[in-house]
Write a structure and sequence with these properties.
disordered C terminus; disordered N terminus; mainly beta; single chain; 5-stranded mixed beta sheet; 6-stranded mixed beta sheet; extended
Length: 1468
């Protein structure tokens, strides 16, 4: 179906957020809500009436059921019911009256407002009309007076159209025009920055014309120096006027195009409103073709020069994408001011791709600029997923239904799209809901289930076999409103100009049940659904309508309700779930609260199928050249082009078969400019058509095209010079056009005319190829001027400006005439080469040389470059200033003197081109010497010209030129010493691309030597002749060539005697690898001598020799004998690796050997000094590795260690002597392990002093360690003692003082590196250590001198009653200690029973005479002096006579308990 255009109320609808739940579209929506409110009131009133009736009926029924009610009661009930019904009716009438009164008051108020607005509008219109009438009268009067004044002042010059400023690219032409009137005719002169412009001063540069009062200055091939202010002054006898304009010449940059690209077939609409003010608008900088990716930001900006610059009045700025006028949105922001106009994109989508045009509209006309913006797909969320769809739009919106359409993505580099998912989101929320469960095949989908009055936005996602694409840009918001409501409005005209708007329902009368819908038809048919449309019933009634759709398969005779669960409120509905290939008929029923209508008329049979099909492939694809980076692709439209959405263009580099998309959004026309191509590369193009169903097949591929600028006619020649004249003829010369048009110039046409004549006459009917021509049949003494036009394949270009007037008179001067055709090449930063041609008129004697003059542009003083005349017609000018522009001229010299100077050259800027290439020399694979040059800038018309000494090479016997594409080579056929010199190359139809190469004798000799090597080749060798000794003592002689052909031959020569393949000399050659070898089984003293291999392979040959004489031979012989013995040894059990050692991470020395060829019977033993060395574990011979660990290596481990293997096949021994240097190496290796694992220095305080300790895995005195104090080495002394244990090394500082403060370093040397640990013993660390030392020292002294029991007391004593117990011990203390005895921690009273003796202050005894059971208990001796003491407890057990001796453990030494010096009582 054809999609319905979005109605006006959708465009103006305000899409509120989720809180918006009613219709607010000004008057229409107010009426809509009022109608809904009236319908609800009527329905509530009717329901209230029905309810009252039902209550009355129920009450009557109840009364009748009672059976025994009296008539009075029944009458009372009936009267109550009548009163209730009367009250309800009265209330309803009052409500209706109130509603009618409110409606009438609202209508009257609106009518009054309307009258006021009409009255105000009439007053304003009358006021404006009066002002306009007065203004017209004043303008007419002023125009008449102005005309009268102008008639009086008409004779003075007056400029009607002034000059306009221009901005052009370098090497383009620019034309300045203005119109002036006056009588007599004014004389016009042109000025550049105040200096008069003369055509003769710069021939071919300017063209000045004047026709019918229009004066023109044309600047040909403008360069950067032409940027200036140009003025035109018109003068006659009555006055003078002038006008000026600026010309800005922009220098070409690589990313910009100096030529106008071929545009797209897009016509922009004319502006409806044009600003009144006249503005001149010039684009100073323009945005170019832009390439971006989705999600990025970009700004298209132009810098403008607007004249006049008025702050309050500006020209109107319009931005177009293709042919659509853009407006600001959340995606685009526009800016105009401060001399620039810009269009910014905050988040690009493919919807933004297109041709963007900036139009500046004013009374002075329209200035515009266009360039294409390409937007590529963003990186997919899943690799291989398609790009996002685009251009999502909504059509045919209703209360609960809208059709969503979109455009498919280009899937050139991804898999084909198999369907789409459509998502919707209610405005004001971020809750996206997927509308379809299965992918939709076509780019159109009817979305149902919308809520009336709510606004929605939509997006689409594409899916292929790889995954789902990113979502498209969201659509514009659309409201779920019924457009039929608008049709139901009707305007009723009242008296006068008044009218009111009412619903058509108000004229239908009282309609209860609606009629059936009409015009039921299929508005859209698809393979998966059918959209039914119908007209609402007429009359329809005032009640809200719903619709029910029924379907029936043709021939079934039964009807099925489609929307049984959901009522349809819009006169459109999409029917899904139809059987494929089956025809259906449909009918629709309308319903309101009163009931269901009759069915509508049955539709004709409808079958679900695609109404449109995939388009056929586009026709022939033609590609033409455009610019250096773009081409124009055109194609024939497809034969079956139904509802096309556009075309996709793909390109491929010729030969690669890798296709890339050129556009990412379908284009609607069959012509497209593809940008972003590589200059000089060849491309192939193809096109495919796109519609809603899918993408067509690819068109046929185009022919390959090379990306180059398009062909045009050449520009005009310039620099016309008179070279000779004999009185009847003139010889002319001129310069080649600056631009050839992209193809070779075929010749020139010359026209002449005599002075004061208007008509030009043709000189040559056929084009002349040379740029010099003699014009015959001239009249002597007459003045002539000439103009010249160039022609190429495209056609004849514009003729040059007329030359100066040349007088036809014979030259008789003795000096030579002027040189001509000055050209430049090899322009670099500080030098250039100037070329010229000899004068045609040589004077009275031959030309002997030339002088070259130069000056800076703008200067008046010429400087001669060469002091002596040069005989060559070229000169390399050096020592120029970079960035300056220079002008040159040349003067010829003969015996009579210096002749006339040539015409001054055009200014040349001293600046090397970016990417300048130079000539290179080399030798090819055939040995030919060549000079090579590449020119990527060349065109189809470009030609390489090789020169020697800047004279074109034309000797085919000595040189040959080969050119392929942009690569040219000059070959030397028979190089010799006479070929030295300067060789140069230039490329025509470029911007002066040229280079030179100085071939001196040294370089020529190098190239000739390399050529000789290639022409007389040698077989390259990867390896010279060498020998190799096998494990059985065999000697192999071999070499390897780089490459050998199957026809290669060789021979071995030993001592000038060729040897052949035999048992003693086994010779073979593998030509695939280039290896030639000879193996000798028995190498003896007779084999001393020289070995040579000679190889021949076609023309190439080579040889390699090996001399084995004297010591070299003896070394080979000894090695062969050793290998033979080793082979015999390895026949039995043997050591694959002999004994060697290493140190483990635990600092243990490990002796290791590897064994091989063992079996179960093989016996392995460790021996030390020929004595069996027992180990905890037996060696595992199957593993092949035997180890012996020596923990904590010391000198006692010195000795000879042996490992032996033995079985019935033989034996083998490996010996390792652990002593001397080997032992020292082991200690150094242990030092390395210990040094790397050493702990930081730690402080330990002792009674003797401060000890610095370094813990490590193992330490022995053989290790090389040093201690340093303040970087001074410390030796062991009484004050500092150095020592260690197996776990650590220490430094003892005895009796430390303040001098011992400072940094201490411990160093251990492992033979290679020093491992250091440092500690700063100063400050708080030293103070704390010193205090702890002093405390420990005092504690040690106290411990030494305190009171103590040396020995003698047991811990338990058992004695029989009646015996005498004597406890004796020895005490010590300085001073002598005090001794106190306790019994059960109580002082012991001394008497005859208890007695204590102390002898010599150290022998103490206590005696108990006649012990009794009461004497049992704990006895304690307390020995103490001022430094402290100790207490010893003795348990005494007394048993009676005859009792069994208690079973106690044997007595042991009693354990003392310390008593501090401060304690005075017994120890607790």
């Amino acid at each position: 179906m054809s999609l319905v255009t979005m109605p006006f109320y959708q465009k103006r609808h305000k899409h509120f957020d989720q809180s918006y739940r009613n219709i607010q579209t000004r008057y229409l929506l107010d009426e809509y809500t009022a109608k809904k409110r009236a319908s609800s009131q009527a329905s509530s009133q009717q329901s209230l009436t029905e309810k009252s009736s039902s209550q009355a009926a129920s009450s009557q029924t109840s009364l009748s059921q009672a059976g025994t009610v009296c008539r009075l009661c029944a009458k009372r009930v009936s009267s109550e019911q009548e009163e209730r019904e009367h009250e309800n009716k009265r209330r309803y009438q009052s409500l209706v009256a109130a509603y009618g009164e409110a409606k009438r008051e609202r209508f009257l108020s609106e009518l009054a407002e309307l009258e006021d607005s009409v009255h105000m509008a009439r007053a304003q219109a009358r006021e404006k009309l009066d002002k306009y009438t007065l203004q017209q009268m004043m303008e007419d009067q002023m125009s008449w007076e102005r005309h009268t004044v102008e008639e009086r002042m008409r004779r003075a010059p007056e400029i009607l159209v002034r000059l306009r400023s221009h901005t052009v690219w370098e090497r383009m032409s620019v034309k300045l025009c203005f119109t002036v009137q006056g009588f007599p005719t004014p004389v016009v002169q042109w000025y550049k920055d105040g200096s008069l412009i003369s055509q003769a001063a710069d021939p071919g540069k300017y063209r000045i014309e004047s026709k019918y009062g229009v004066h023109t200055l044309e600047i040909h091939r403008a360069n950067f120096d032409d940027t200036a202010t140009y003025s035109a002054v018109a003068t006659n006898v009555h006055g003078q006027v002038s006008t000026n304009a600026a010309v800005v010449v922009r220098r070409f940059r690589g990313e910009e195009e100096p030529l106008h690209s071929v545009g797209l077939p897009i016509g922009l609409p004319l502006s409806s409103v044009v600003p009144y003010t006249h503005f001149d608008v010039q684009f100073l900088e323009k945005f170019g073709v832009t390439f971006r990716r989705e999600g990025e930001t970009v700004t298209l900006k132009c810098t403008l020069l607007v004249t006049p610059d008025l702050k309050r009045v500006q020209p109107r700025v319009e931005w177009y994408r293709d042919d659509v006028l853009l407006k600001e949105s959340k995606w685009t922001q526009m800016f105009f001011g401060e001399g620039q106009a810009s269009l910014s994109f905050s988040h690009l989508n493919k919807d933004d791709e297109g041709l963007y045009t900036l139009r500046i509209v004013s009374r002075g006309g329209v200035s515009d600029h266009s360039a294409y913006l390409f937007v590529r797909d963003a990186d997919p969320l899943v690799t291989g997923a398609p790009g996002a769809p685009m251009d999502v739009q909504c059509h045919d919106a209703n209360r609960d239904y809208v059709i969503v359409t979109w455009k498919p993505p280009n899937t050139t580099t991804e898999g084909a799209v198999i369907g789409y998912f459509i998502d919707r989101c209610e405005v004001g929320t971020n809750n996206w809901v997927q509308c379809n469960d299965s992918p939709v095949k076509i780019c159109k989908y009817p979305v149902t289930g919308l809520f009336e009055g709510r606004s929605y936005v939509f997006r689409v996602r594409a899916i292929n076999n790889a995954g789902v694409s990113r979502p498209s840009r969201i659509s514009d918001a659309v409201a779920a409103l019924d457009p039929v409501d608008l049709k139901r409005l009707q305007a009723v005209h009242l008296e006068g100009d008044k009218e009111i708007v009412i619903y058509q329902d108000d004229l239908e009368g009282d309609v209860q049940i609606p009629g059936p819908p009409t015009n039921v038809h299929a508005s859209e048919i698809s393979r998966t659904y059918v959209v039914l449309s119908w007209d609402p019933p007429s009359p329809r009634g005032k009640e809200p309508l719903t619709y029910f759709i029924e379907k029936s398969m043709v021939g079934s005779g039964s009807w099925q309700r489609v929307n049984a669960q959901t009522a349809v409120r819009s006169p459109r509905y999409a029917v899904f779930d139809l059987a494929e290939g089956k025809p259906y008929v449909f009918r629709v029923l309308s319903a309101n609260k009163h009931g269901l209508s009759d069915p509508s008329e049955i539709t004709p049979p409808i079958q679900a199928q695609d109404a449109i099909v995939t388009p056929s492939a586009p026709g022939r694809v033609l590609v033409s050249r455009d610019t250096k980076t773009s081409v124009v692709v055109e194609w024939d439209r497809p034969k079956h082009a139904e509802d096309l959405l556009g075309y996709y263009v793909d390109c491929c580099v010729a030969g690669s078969n890798v296709w890339e998309p050129c556009n990412h959004k379908p284009i609607g026309y069959n012509r497209f400019v593809v940008h972003g191509l590589t200059t000089g590369e060849q491309y192939i193009f193809r096109v495919k058509a796109v519609n809603a169903v899918g993408t067509s097949e690819n068109s046929q591929e185009s022919d390959p095209i090379k990306v180059q600028a398009a062909l045009t006619v050449p520009s005009h020649p310039y620099g016309i010079t008179l070279l000779n004249c004999d009185g009847h003829s003139m010889t002319l010369g001129w310069k080649v056009p600056r631009f050839s048009g992209g193809t070779a110039i075929l010749g020139y046409f010359v026209d002449k005319r005599e002075a004061q004549h208007k008509n030009w006459h043709e000189v040559n009917a056929a084009p002349v190829k040379e740029r010099i021509l003699t014009v015959e049949d001239l009249t002597e003494g007459s003045l002539y001027e000439f103009k010249i036009a160039a022609t190429n394949l495209v056609g004849i270009g514009q003729p040059s400006d007329p030359s100066e007037l040349f007088k036809c008179e014979a030259w008789t001067a003795p000096e030579p005439g002027p040189t001509y055709d000055l050209t430049f090449c090899e322009v670099r930063d500080t030098s250039l080469v100037l070329l010229w041609k000899a004068p045609v008129y040589s004077g009275s004697s031959p030309v002997s040389g030339y002088f070259v003059d130069c000056k800076e542009e703008g200067s008046e003083e010429w400087t001669t470059v060469n002091e002596a005349a040069t005989a060559s017609r070229y000169l390399k000018v050096r020592d120029l200033h970079q960035g300056k522009s220079y002008v040159f001229r040349v003067r010829a010299v003969n015996a009579s003197g210096v002749g006339l100077p040539s015409d001054a050259s055009e200014p040349v800027l001293l600046e090397a081109r970016p990417g300048t290439k130079e000539v290179s020399a080399g030798v090819d694979e055939q040995g030919n010497i060549y000079l090579s040059f590449d020119c990527p800038e060349m065109t189809d018309a470009s030609q390489f010209t090789w020169c020697k000494s800047y004279e074109e090479i034309s000797d085919p016997e000595k040189f040959q030129v080969e050119t392929v594409g942009d690569h040219s080579k000059l070959y030397f056929k028979n190089p010799e010493k006479g070929d030295v010199g300067t060789y140069s190359v230039s490329v025509s139809d470029t911007d002066g691309v040229s280079s030179s190469f100085v071939l001196d004798e040294a370089e020529l000799e190098r190239l000739m030597a390399l050529s000789n090597e290639i022409k007389n080749p040698t077989i390259p060798l990867k390896s010279e002749l060498a020998y190799e000794i096998f494990d059985r003592g065999q000697v192999r002689f071999w070499l390897q060539a780089e490459q050998l052909s199957p026809d290669a031959s060789f021979r071995f020569v030993i001592n000038d005697r060729e040897v052949s393949d035999s048992e003693t000399h086994k010779i073979k050659c593998d030509k695939s690898t280039g290896i030639i070898e000879m193996v000798m089984d028995q190498f003896t003293v007779e084999n001393e001598g020289t070995y040579t291999v000679q190889i021949h392979d076609g023309k190439a040959k080579n040889q390699s020799s090996l001399v084995l004489i004297g010591d070299a031979f003896k070394a080979v012989l000894d090695e062969a004998e050793f290998q033979r013995k080793e082979f015999l040894r390895k026949q039995g059990p043997h050591f694959a690796e002999y004994l060697h050692w290493d140190v483990t991470e635990e600092c243990e020395v490990r002796l290791v050997c590897k064994v091989a060829n063992t079996k179960k019977e093989t016996v392995f033993k460790w021996l030390k000094d020929d004595a069996l060395y027992e180990t905890e574990t037996l060696p595992d011979l199957e593993r092949g590795v035997c180890e012996l660990l020596i923990p904590k290596l010391s000198k006692k481990d010195h000795g000879e260690y042996k490992a032996t293997l033995k079985d019935d096949r033989g034996q083998d021994v490996s010996v390792l002597e652990v002593s001397g240097k080997l032992y020292e190496d082991m200690v150094l290796a242990m030092s390395r392990v210990c040094g790397m694992s050493a702990s930081p220095l730690k402080i330990l305080c002792t009674p003797d002093g401060i000890r610095l300790q370094c813990f490590m895995k193992y330490f022995t005195e053989e290790m090389k360690v040093n201690w340093y104090h303040k970087d001074a080495k410390i030796s062991s002394s009484e004050h500092t003692r150095i020592g260690g244990s197996e776990e650590m090394a220490w430094l003892q500082i005895c009796e430390p003082t303040e001098k011992d403060k400072g940094k201490y370093t411990f160093e251990i040397f492992d033979g290679k590196d020093n491992h250091q640990r440092s500690l700063d013993l100063s400050g708080q660390a030293f103070d704390e250590a010193l205090a702890e030392f002093q405390q420990l020292k005092a504690a040690a002294f106290a411990e030494k001198n305190r009171g103590k029991v040396i020995g003698g007391l047991p811990d338990v004593v058992t004695i029989m009653e009646g015996k005498t117990l004597n406890l004796t011990c020895t005490v010590f203390g300085n001073p002598d200690p005090e001794v106190v005895w306790f019994k059960n921690d109580q002082d012991l009273e001394l008497n005859e029973h208890f007695s204590v003796k102390v002898e010599q202050a150290k022998f103490v005894s206590m005696s108990i005479k006649g012990v009794t059971s009461e004497d049992s208990g704990k006895y304690s001796i307390n020995v103490k002096n001022k430094y402290g003491g100790e207490k010893i407890d003795v348990t005494v057990s007394v048993y009676k006579h005859g009792e069994t001796i208690p079973d106690v453990q044997p007595p042991q030494q009693a354990t003392p308990k310390l008593i501090p010096a401060s304690s005075s009582g017994p120890a607790q």
